[in-house]
Design brief:
elongated
Length: about 60
Amino acid sequence: MKTIEITIDPRGKSRVETKGFTGPSCREASRPYEEALGATIAERVTPALHQADEPGPRIKQSS
């Protein structure tokens, strides 16, 4: 399951964390939230960023 977790601490520091994404799709999914929250101070990537994106649904046509 793909999720985006946003945590804001009492001082206003925020963190956006993606879970269940592979490849660069995590960055695409989290970008609107990161832009809304302000400037990015640091980024920590996981090995999932370097994995191939999961293929989308396949469409099978019958002849």
